[in-house]
Amino acid sequence: MIRCDCAVCTSSDPRDKRTRSSIYIETPECAFVVDTGTDFRTQALRENIWRLDAVIFTHSHTDHIMGFDDLRRFGSVRGYMPVYASRDTMNDLRRVFKFAFEAETQFPGYLKPEPHIVDGPFQLGATTITPLPVPHGRSPVNGYLFERGGKKLLAYLSDCSEVPEHIGAQITGVKVLVIDALRPNPHPTHLSVAQALEVAERVQAERAFFTHVAHELPHSAEADLPPHARIAYDGLKLEL
Amino acid sequence: MIRCDCAVCTSSDPRDKRTRSSIYIETPECAFVVDTGTDFRTQALRENIWRLDAVIFTHSHTDHIMGFDDLRRFGSVRGYMPVYASRDTMNDLRRVFKFAFEAETQFPGYLKPEPHIVDGPFQLGATTITPLPVPHGRSPVNGYLFERGGKKLLAYLSDCSEVPEHIGAQITGVKVLVIDALRPNPHPTHLSVAQALEVAERVQAERAFFTHVAHELPHSAEADLPPHARIAYDGLKLEL
């Protein structure tokens, strides 16, 4: 974190160097990313991403959208970029990236978003993606459940202060749960480590990975977690 | 650049790894930054910046503003962050970062911008800063001239397709000119290398540094430039 010399911010463990939360999913049919935070270009270069067929947004906070324009390098492949977001998030994207949504002249190489409002499950290739609306303090945020062949492979809940019972029920038995665990202490808009562990147990996730982790939680704190719960880090890859 | 394996994008010269254009200026009285592009956090962490008293904007294109919210780590020191920009750029900042400009509840640690419309020269400590409106294709962009003790120390023209005669006259004799030089070939909204060299000569800059450089221009191309013209790189430091 800027202006901080705490043990985590000055740690030599590369897993303590964290950019903004996001996931990239490759399937046999297509590839997509959830959120394009401010670090999107850095992340795409670091992971040498060459394919991206769609983008899905959880919500419109700056740490999740400000890299949006860097999608132009993928959108230009086919001339447009499918963008999936709730109506409120899409409205914010339209306001912030007005030049892209309202462009009259289409310069080659510029981003041309193709908006898809998410108001229920949708398909990308053979993947069924179900929005999971959860509270992030007073803001609503979409988590997402990714299913293939009827199997609950992944639930992504990057920003939430609570996982209501009916959402927990939807993801029960999920293979991998990626879940907000900001820090050991409670926070008004994010889950704490203990709260994230409670959700992972309640939904009987095979494995849980903590994301949106702040500098109060060193990567080394993983040693104190049960074996099915791990702290995610930049560049972590999972095969499901 | 994303999705590119050209010689510059895969170069092992660290000076070929480029983040978005920006400068940070430290004076005995205060410190300020010109633009907070998408890489602002990355740059502030890399350079271990702990002090920032104000921010000045050239224009509102994404590569110059999208890191704005990361100013919160500096603004929180005194509770607000002075923001200098033309009226049009300020309007765009207000639209894009609505939550910061219009916040009703001030959470501690959130960014509270203090807007200053730039419509003529202004002072930050003992530095006189004069806006230099230049065309960036069809958009107007502010370059800036920085003077101390009546000396023209630095002119910053990060994005321009032309430097009109009257602007050239204002910066004639400047010690350091940092100027847009996108690539060898002409471009509708940026200067080429030859055009940037012409400006540097016309304004009799003691030294010129090229910025906003694209992957068509390897750092090694510096060898072909006259000795007073250099290609800037991430982390370059100058004492004036």
Features:
7 helices, Metallo-beta-lactamase, Chain A, homodimer, about 240 residues, alpha/beta, about 20% helix
Question: Your description of this structure?
Answer:
The structure is a homodimer. Chain A is of the alpha/beta class and about 240 residues long. Chain A has 2 domains: about 20-120, Metallo-beta-lactamase, Chain A; about 120-230, Ribonuclease Z/Hydroxyacylglutathione hydrolase-like (Metallo-beta-lactamase, Chain A, 4-Layer Sandwich). Chain A is about 20% helix and about 25% strand. Chain A has 7 helices and 12 strands. The first copy, chain A, has helices spanning about 40-45, 60-65, 70-80, 85-95, 100, 165-170, 195-200; strands at about 25, 30-35, 55, 80-85, 115, 120-125, 125-135, 140-150, 150-155, 175-180, 205-210, 230. At the A-B interface, helix 1 and helix 3 of A face helix 1 and helix 3 of B.
Global geometry of chain A: globular
Order of helices and strands of chain A: EEHEHHEHHEEEEEHEHEE
In the CATH hierarchy, the architecture of the largest domain in chain A is 4-Layer Sandwich
What oligomeric state do the depicted chains represent? Answer: homodimer
Looking across the biggest beta sheet of chain A, what order are the strands in? 6-7-8-9-10-11-12
Question: How many domains in all of chain A?
Answer: 2
Largest sheet of chain A: 7 strands, mixed
CATH superfamily assignment of the largest domain in chain A? Ribonuclease Z/Hydroxyacylglutathione hydrolase-like
The CATH topology label of the largest domain in chain A is Metallo-beta-lactamase, Chain A
Low-confidence stretches of chain A: none
Helix content of chain A: 10-25%
Mean pLDDT of chain A: 96
Instruction: Report strand % of chain A.
Output: 25-35%
Radius of gyration of chain A: 18 Å
Tell me the distance between the termini of chain A.
Answer: 32 Å
Instruction: Kindly provide the name of the CATH class of the largest domain in chain A.
Output: Alpha Beta
Largest interface: pair, residues per side: A-B, 25 and 25 residues
Query: Could you say which structural class the secondary elements and strand pairing of chain A correspond to?
Result: alpha/beta
Counted by DSSP, the helix tally of chain A is 7
